[in-house]
Amino acid sequence: MASEKQSVEQSLKRLEKIIEELNARDVDVEEGVKKFKEGVELVKLCRERLGEAENEFKKLQTSI
Predict the structure, then answer these.
(1) Which residues contact residue 18 at a Cβ distance below 8 angstroms, ignoring those fewer than 6 apart?
(2) 6: which of 10, 13, 47, 52 fits an S-S bond (Cβ 3.0–4.6 Å)?
(3) For 3-56, what is each residue's pLDDT tens digit?
C-alpha cells in the first residue's frame, strides 16, 4: 500500500506501474482490485501532498 513517507514522484512512478500492469490484462480479478485500491490510495496521497505544497506557496507569496 501507499506509504505516508513516499514522495509525490515515487507515488506517481508506482501509479504508472500499476496502470501498465492493469493495461497488460494478464492480471486476475482479485489482483486487479488490489492494484486498483492501491492506485486510489496513491492518488489520494498525491492530492494531499500537492495541496500542502500549494498552501506553502500561497503562504510564501503573501509574505513577499
Answers:
(1) 35, 36, 38, 39, 42
(2) 10
(3) 556 789 999 999 999 999 999 888 899 999 999 999 999 999 999 999 999 999
* CA distances from residue 30 to 7, 33, 35, 36 in whole angstroms, order as listed: 27, 5, 9, 10
- Number of helical (H) and strand (E) elements in the chain, helices listed first: 2, 0
Q: Which three cell numbers stand for residue 38?
A: 492501491
Q: What's this model's pTM, rounded to 2 decimal places?
A: 0.78
Query: What region does 27 belong to: left with phi over 0, alpha with psi -120 to 50, or beta?
Result: beta
Say whether 2 sits in a helix, a strand or coil: coil
